[in-house]
């Protein structure tokens, strides 16, 4: 018969988390705001310079910003950033409908 593998001297009691400190830690997450600003910058580059990779990066940044925001945040700003990035993608392909050619394709041809 085997001995009991539990070690009573390693038991640590759980301490309840203070709700205010947990909300304060969640409120300090700057990722959605950074992604929102990056999405705006990339979408402006995609619209003004007609750079397709920047337009796609703006769409990715706005999706990440939307996915990481809380429901209490301002949804108008997030929605406007998302619509701006979608319009950057659409306008860049309306200007030039050719697909994006990756740089490594030109190395082999």
TrEMBL record:
Superkingdom field: Eukaryota
Matches recorded under InterPro entries: ASTER
Any Gene Ontology biological process: protein insertion into ER membrane
Entry protein name: Uncharacterized protein
Subcellular location: Membrane
Family membership noted in the UniProt record: Belongs to the Asterix family.
Keyword list, A-Z: Membrane, Transmembrane, Transmembrane helix
Species assigned in the record: Diploscapter pachys
Coiled coil: none
GO cellular component term, pick one: endoplasmic reticulum membrane
Molecular functions per Gene Ontology: protein folding chaperone
């Amino acid at each position: 018969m085997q001995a009991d593998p539990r070690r009573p001297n390693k038991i640590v009691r759980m301490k309840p988390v203070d709700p205010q400190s947990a909300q304060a830690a969640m409120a300090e997450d700057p990722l959605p705001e950074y992604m929102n600003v990056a999405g705006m910058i990339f979408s402006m580059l995609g619209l003004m310079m007609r750079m397709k990779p920047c337009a796609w990066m703006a769409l990715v940044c706005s999706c990440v910003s939307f996915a990481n925001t809380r429901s209490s945040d301002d949804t108008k700003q997030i929605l406007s950033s998302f619509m701006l990035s979608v319009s950057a993608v659409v306008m860049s392909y309306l200007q030039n409908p050719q697909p994006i050619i990756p740089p490594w394709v030109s190395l082999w041809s």
